[in-house]
């Protein structure tokens, strides 16, 4: 066997072990006994050590030097294996250990500070996290831009400057749209009784409609919904609130979008470096297009309105139009995860600009809360009332996730581009959505995005699928048309 085959054989076991590690994390969030937390931390730590050792194994470097790929997909395999190998080797072991230890402790300190509305109680720890992540970024960047080095983990090939250009183009339009929507009378929310069991029945039905294969997946309950796994074992979670069916409905459709992406990857890539989504941004585009462009569309809401009344009886809204307005309600709020389609991206841009300044060394952690509050009031039009609703609301920074936030908004941008191409190529899509059937859309996504896995860089993948380079235009047009009609000025 040649170096290429030896390397792929070795990497296959690494990929399989990484799937096992992912399943441990799934277990921890769903069914693990409460008393198992300390033992699980040790089990996870041992697993991570094995994975790190395999990724940095000197034989991988030798094979990479000698390997000749048989085809273009083989070139992509080498690129992705090299990426993981280089990343693991560039960061000194003692720094990696210090970061892991600090961030697991910092998460608890953040949770306490958030409960106590006390940013000052968290600031020194966050300062340490920023310091170590900057050190790590310097090791990865080798003289290049620090933030770009962190971003590359989540969105290969993207740069902060390029994302900033896209976001800066979107921001004025979104602020104007937000202003207009919040000045109009607020639509009525739905009201009724929505038993958890009946919501879960609906969630299973929705997941199947959006193409989820339960022979290779399962749906469980978790506090924060997520999807996990690749290939033939891709699991999703959801949650229910008995007074609000939308929480369960739209988090299920969202996670289904992530899961069908993983399930739709070419089986030839299973348990290889290409057997997963291309990036966090492309992943988020798949969940968002299902949740928003399809699931919150007027046509799908026609079916969903009748379906909810059949399952739950009276839901307190006058008619189908009022239901559509309730689904797409733009409302005042401080929390990113509860934000509507218009304000969500403003939340992300705020975090992106602040974390970029932190990593660049242009903003001190001590000034972060004030910077957050100023920016929030400028973009949202009302002041933050307390730190738990502001700078302390997200877990990300406490666990060191710098460079992750912008992929959420980039996912929306990609979703806007993909949706435009989808509507062009499937002109009768609404006829299907009216019957609660998004299948022509999921088939199109599988053909143009899913099956390629991580073979192409995100930008190339989206450009090929859409027939044009990704840009903010299609998303802005979609939002302005949709919310302009819902909130005529
Ligand atoms: Zn998501």
Structure in words:
The protein has 489 residues and is mainly α. 65% of the residues lie in helices and 2% in strands. The protein has helices spanning 3-30, 37-56, 58-66, 72-90, 93-115, 119-141, 146-154, 160-183, 196-209, 245-263, 280-294, 298-312, 320-327, 341-360, 368-380, 405-425, 429-433, 439-448, 458-466, 473-486, and strands at 219-221, 227-228, 235-238. Strands 1-3-2 form a three-stranded mixed beta sheet. Helix 10 crosses helix 11 (280-294), helix 12 (298-312) crosses helix 13 (320-327) and helix 14 packs antiparallel against helix 15 (368-380). The longest helix has 28 residues, at 3-30. The model has no long low-confidence stretch (mean pLDDT 96). Residues 254, 258, 284, 287 line the site of zinc ion (ZN).
CATH class of the largest domain: Mainly Alpha
Number of domains: 2
What's the count of strands?
A: 3
Q: Count helical runs.
A: 20
The CATH architecture designation of the largest domain is: Orthogonal Bundle
Q: Which properties best describe this structure?
A:
single chain; 489 residues; mainly alpha; Neurolysin, domain 3; 3-stranded mixed β-sheet; 20 helices; 3 strands; 65% helix; globular; binds zinc ion
């Amino acid at each position: 066997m040649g170096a290429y085959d030896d390397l792929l054989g070795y990497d296959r076991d690494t990929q399989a072990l990484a799937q096992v590690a992912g399943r441990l994390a799934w277990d921890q969030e769903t069914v693990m006994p409460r008393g198992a937390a300390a033992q699980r931390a040790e089990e996870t730590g041992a697993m991570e050590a094995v994975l790190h050792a395999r990724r940095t194994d000197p034989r991988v470097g030798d094979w990479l030097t000698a390997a000749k790929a048989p085809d273009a997909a083989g070139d992509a395999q080498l690129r992705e294996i090299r990426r993981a190998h280089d990343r693991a080797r560039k960061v000194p072991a003692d720094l990696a250990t210090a970061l892991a230890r600090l961030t697991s402790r910092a998460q608890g300190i953040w949770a306490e500070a958030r409960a106590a509305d006390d940013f000052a109680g968290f600031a020194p720890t966050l300062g340490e996290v920023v310091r170590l992540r900057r050190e790590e970024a310097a090791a990865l960047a080798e003289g290049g831009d620090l933030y770009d080095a962190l971003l590359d983990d989540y969105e290969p090939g993207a740069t902060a400057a390029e994302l900033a250009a896209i976001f800066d183009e979107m921001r004025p339009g979104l602020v104007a749209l937000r202003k207009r929507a919040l000045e109009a009378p607020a639509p009525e929310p739905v009201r009724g009784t929505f038993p958890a069991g009946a919501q879960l029945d609906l969630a299973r039905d929705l997941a199947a409609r959006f193409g989820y294969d339960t022979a290779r997946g399962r749906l469980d309950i978790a506090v924060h919904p997520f999807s996990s796994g690749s290939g033939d074992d891709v699991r999703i979670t959801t949650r229910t609130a008995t007074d609000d069916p939308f929480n369960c409905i739209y988090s299920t459709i969202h996670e289904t979008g992530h899961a069908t992406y993983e399930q739709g990857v070419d089986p030839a890539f299973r348990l290889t470096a290409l057997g997963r989504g291309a990036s966090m941004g492309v992943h988020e585009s798949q969940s968002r297009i299902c949740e928003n462009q399809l699931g919150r569309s007027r046509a799908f809401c026609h079916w969903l309105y009748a379906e909810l009344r059949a399952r739950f009886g009276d839901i307190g809204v006058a008619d189908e139009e009022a239901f559509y307005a309730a689904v797409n309600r733009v409302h005042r709020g401080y929390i990113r995860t509860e934000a509507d389609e218009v304000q969500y991206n403003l939340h992300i841009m705020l975090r992106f600009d602040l974390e970029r300044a932190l990593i660049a060394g242009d903003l001190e952690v001590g000034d972060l809360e004030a910077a957050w509050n100023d920016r929030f009031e400028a973009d949202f039009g009302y002041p933050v009332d307390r730190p738990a609703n502001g700078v302390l609301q997200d877990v990300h920074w406490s666990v060191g996730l710098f460079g992750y936030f912008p992929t959420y908004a980039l996912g929306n941008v990609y979703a806007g581009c993909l949706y435009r191409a989808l509507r062009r190529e499937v002109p009768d899509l609404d006829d299907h959505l009216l019957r609660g059937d998004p299948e022509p859309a999921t088939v199109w996504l599988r053909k143009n995005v899913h099956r390629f896995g991580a073979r192409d860089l995100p930008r190339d993948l989206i450009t090929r699928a859409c027939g044009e380079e990704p840009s903010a235009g299609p998303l802005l047009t979609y939002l302005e048309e949709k919310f302009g009609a819902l909130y005529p000025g």
